[in-house]
Structure formats: C-alpha cells, structure tokens
Amino acid sequence: MQLSEVKGIGKKKLEVLNSMGIFDVNDLLNYFPYRYENRSIIKNIIDTRNEENCVIKVKFISKPVTKYLRRNLNLTSAIAFDDTSKISVSWFNQPFIRNQILPNTTYYLYGKINRVQNQFKISSPILSKTFGGKLGIIYPIYKVKKGVTNNDMIKFIDFAIKHCIDEIKNVIPYSMIKNYDIENKRNAIKNIHKPVDYAQFKRARTALVLEEVIIMQLAMKSMKTTLNEQNYIKFQTDESMDLFIQSLKFELTKGQLEAIRDIESDMTSEKRMNRLVQGDVGSGKTIVAEAAIFKSYSSGYQSAFMAPTDILATQHYENLSDDFSKFGLKVCLLKSDLTKSEKDSVLEGIKSGYFDVIVGTHAIIQDFVDFKKLGLVITDEQHRFGVGQRKKISDKGKNPDVLVMTATPIPRTLALSYYGDLDISTINEMPKGRKVIETYSVGFSYEKRIAAFIRKQVENGFQAYVVCPLIEESEALDLENVTELYNRLSSEYFSDINVGMLHGKMKSSEKEEIMKDFVDGKTKILVSTTVIEVGVDVKKANVIVIYNAERFGLSQLHQLRGRVGRSSDQSYCILINNAYSDEQMERMNIMVNTNSGFELSQKDLMMRGSGDLLGTRQSGIPLLNIADLEKDYDLIEKAAVITEYIYTNDLCETKEYMYLDEEINKFKDKLLDNVIFN
C-alpha cells in the first residue's frame, strides 16, 4: 500500500509526513510515540499531586460562567466535586463548554492538576461523559509538524495497522523469538502504538529495542571483519615510541603506557588499527596520540589529526608544533577560514609530503585534500564523529590506521554497540600531582561572594571561566545569558579586570583571537557558552562557575568542570543553580561528591533507569528509532549475547535469517551515509 492510499492522507499531509521522514507505510508503522499519557486510571481529587496529569470523576456544583477578559480571550469556569474534595475547572476560549455541562451528571476530566495544599485547580481539561475514546487508555503522543496533528497520526497508524500489519515480517527468526521469549514483530508494532497497560508496552518496546540493537551490533561486527580483511599498513618495529617516551619531561601514568603499548602492538601487527582510547577529562590522551604520530612519522607516513571545533584544532596544532619541534616534524593547520593563498600553500604541502602532521576540523575530509602518504588518522572527541566520518577520512589513504579519542566515559554495553567496530583502551587514572577539583552547589544569592572569590584567584595569578546556557535574552526561560552576564560582571564586579566573552555565533577568527588572549593570560575572566566544553586546555584557569547548572546533564557538567584542574594547582567548580526537583538536586549532589567521569557515568545511567512509560529519552543517534544506548542497559547486554551467538555460528548466511541479513546491510549503508557534524 502506498502512503497516499492511507485514509486521510492528501497531498499536503503527504508532504508534511515526508518532511518527518515518513515515505511509506512501513515508515509510518515504525514512527513510534515519543511519550505516552496514562489516561487509564481514575484518581480521587484529594489523592492527586501538583503538576500531575490524571483523570478525575466529578459532578459540577455550579453552572459554568464565561468571562470576557479582552478581545479574543474569554474564560469559562465552574466548580466540580467528587467524594473527597472540590476543584476549580476552567477553559480558555471554549464558551461552548457551558452547553455541554448539565447538573447531576457524572463527567470525566483529564488534565494537569494545580494543587496548593488542599486547593485544587484544573485548566482546559478534556471533558467526557464516558470513560472511553481518548480516556480510559494509555494515549500515545507523536512528534508532529505543522499540518499534521497528533490525532491525524493516531488515525493514520490505526488504518495502517488494520490494513497492512500482515505484511510485517519477523526480522528476528521465530526460533530465536521462542528461545528468548521475545514478542513477535506484528504484536510489538500494534502494542507500541496502542498499549493496554504498562506490561504490554514494556514487552513491545523490549522486542523492538532488541531487534534494533542486534541489527546495529551485527552491522558493527561485520564492518570490523571487513576492515581487518582489507590491505593494511604495517609500521616498522623499532624503538621510536620508547624514544618519544624518554624525551618527555614528566612520567606517564600506567594507563597511558598501557594505551601506548596497545597502539604499538596494533600498528606493527598483521591487522589494521581501529582503536578507541577513552580517558577521563585531563587524563592525558593527547600524549598517547602523539606517541602514535611519532611512530607513523618514523615509518615514513603522514598523520591526520581531526578535532571537532576550530578552537580545539588550533590548540592541538600549537601543542603538536611545540612538542614535535625538537624532532623536526612539520605540522600544519587546515581549517575553513584560511585565505585562498594560505589554503593552496597548505594543500600543496600535504600533497607533496612536506607536512608530516595535518591538523584540522572536518575540512580534512573534503575531496580537495590529497595526502602523499597517509598512515594514521586520529579523531578527537569520538561523540562528535560517526562511522561515516571515520570511513571518509580513512579513504584518503590506503587504509590508514585509525585512532579515536574520547573523554566521554563509555559503559561496556555502549562500547559493544555504538563502538563495535573499534578496539578499546582505557586510561583510568590522572597524571601525578593533579589535585581533586573542589565542587560546590549554591544558589544565585551567592553571586557577590563568588565574584569576590574569583577576584582573589585572579589577584593570585589565576584565571576563571564563567559559563551560561544561552547567547541572547530569552522570554521562554529565566536563564542567565552570555551577553547579559558579561555586561553585568564586567561593569559591577570586574570593571578593572580584563573580561572576555565567547559564544558559538562568533566568527571563527573572532573566537580564536578571544581564546588566544585567554590562553596567553591577557584575558583573566572568560564569560562563555558551552563552546568551551570540549578539550580546551588553559593551565592557569583554576575556577569555573556554571550558571543555571540544573539545566545541564551530568556528562556536560563534568566536561565543563574538566576545563580546570589542568595543573598541580587547586581548582574549583561552582554550580550556581535553581534546582528544585528531586532529580535536579540529586544531579547537583552527584557533581559535588563525584570527580571520576567513569563513576559519574554509571550514576547517570542508574538515575535514568531502565524504562519509563511516560517518557522515552531520545538516543541522540539518528540511526536508532527506539533504542536508547544510555538507558537500555539490560537490553543491550541481552542483545550482545544473542548477537554473539548469531555471529559466531554464521547464522546470517542461512535462509531463516535472510530478513535479518537484509536489515544489517541497510544499517551498514546508513552508517556510512550518516556524515553529520553535530
């Protein structure tokens, strides 16, 4: 059946559905709700909580009255009751409601309760005489665009289920479904859209998540096998890495040395290196990458170092230039804002082999960049680059070795899934002499005291970051923004101190100049958005103040905190927040009491839980439709067991697994096409 044959889908709605990524009936059936409203339970008024969405069963005491507040705005209100309490009910711009409410008649209302002690209000609720239709069910909510409503989606999907459900094939074979007690695909599709209860929803979602993760894991394993079968570069077995380590003026940690040995083993082995080095913020991953670069150079190959932002690329360029100058390595920086003559000169140097190390952002993978002898590719901050990017830059050479670095701690289940095409080394300790960053959670009333503390640190020769979420003033949320905060701090507290401002909307050249002034110590206080989140290294910065910290996730807060504590000096992280919910307050407490990124990642995972009917968090990975790699911990473990069984027994080669094999190949194509810089 064509999408246009679904009842209610005309030309205009078809265009909107296409813009939502829905092109056929299969896409429609696999367009899952992003959250649900539980309208199946009736509560007594007295038992409801503030801000709770629920159904109440009432009669009306008073006849509804409509007040006209101003032009085009009226309010219809009445008082209702049940056996436990009264409640004030109101509707905006719905005067016709008056004619629907009769005395001594039972009604069901669904909406958000406003409760202050034992005073109750409900605004613009759904009104029904029967506990049916939109009530008495678990109601699906879809992400829609203008021109298609949530009710449209429900009707379209109901029609598709009724007429096309029999066309859906089980991707996971029946024998596997039976052995692992997985819901069959048809029931899973029906029940994810129209669950009768939580148990039915959970069973449907479990089946769909398992299918999706198994496909992804098998695709990753297949790609890894293909990579290992290709021609590779075998680097010289020599003392180059030992020479590099001996040249350092500091002692490497055990984790750094182990990572370097893993890399050396890969580079001199009978296979191509495809390795991820994960280490906490400030654990010294860049030195490990430099050892790999030196190995590549000693064997006569070029290295490409790819960073996610211009600021970070520039910093890597400067650090690599300094560190390799004594060895004679020539380092260049390739980025988008070079002049034509500068770019032509750099490109010629890359093509001729004059440059040994090429540092840049995604400009490195553009078609116009030709390497003479590319042997090693390094990407910094893996979560900014996907498989597609890694493949595109690898295609620049004859299957060069690939080294990926990330400061984002990755639980083992995520490593099995999203990073399944990579081997993993972990640096789980900090360089000697580093002190634990002291973290504090305070309210906005502390601003004056914090400003005095920053001033004292600046007077002692240190620098400070001040971070806030927004760039410009926002009416929607009462959040600090960088322009307003910069103006206030520089005028009220630091008029005699050089304060800089940095945000993502500035030109690259402007951002670099501001960042250089901060690195050089000319700017003492930098007011910034989260553009400084990743990788920036300023040794003298020992204070970071984060405004509206409750608006950030744990991982992002930890990344921001990692901008300080880059030397042996004591550093401080101050979280200014308006945390009011239990979850927000718990996040602040975790940040205060936890400094390990790996421990923090596990706590984050525990906080998210393994499933929540009333709201499903998005995975952040465009190729995943329903699975959440951070939340579905237990399911990913189960999928890994199934995946290993299928893979080791070559079951995808059998007829029973042909539908699964088709989906694996589709997923691999999507992975390679998914070149998105986020």
Protein topology:
Blueprint: H1 11-19, H2 25-29, E1 35-38, E2 53-60, E3 65-70, E4 73-81, E5 86-92, E6 107-116, E7 119-123, E8 126-128, E9 138-141, H3 150-164, H4 174-179, H5 185-193, H6 198-229, H7 240-247, H8 254-267, E10 274-279, H9 285-298, E11 302-306, H10 310-324, E12 331-334, H11 340-352, E13 357-360, E14 374-380, H12 387-394, E15 401-406, H13 412-417, E16 423-427, E17 438-442, H14 447-459, E18 463-467, H15 482-493, E19 499-502, H16 508-519, E20 525-528, E21 541-546, H17 554-561, E22 572-576, H18 582-593, H19 597-608, H20 633-648, H21 658-673
Parallel strand pairs: 5-7, 10-15, 10-16, 11-13, 11-14, 12-13, 14-15, 17-22, 18-20, 18-21, 19-20, 21-22
Antiparallel strand pairs: 1-9, 2-4, 2-6, 3-4, 4-5, 6-7, 6-8
For this entry, give a set of tags.
678 residues; disordered C terminus; OB fold (Dihydrolipoamide Acetyltransferase, E2P); DNA polymerase, domain 1; Rossmann fold; 22 strands; 4 domains; 7-stranded parallel sheet; alpha/beta
Short recap of the structure:
The protein is of the alpha/beta class.
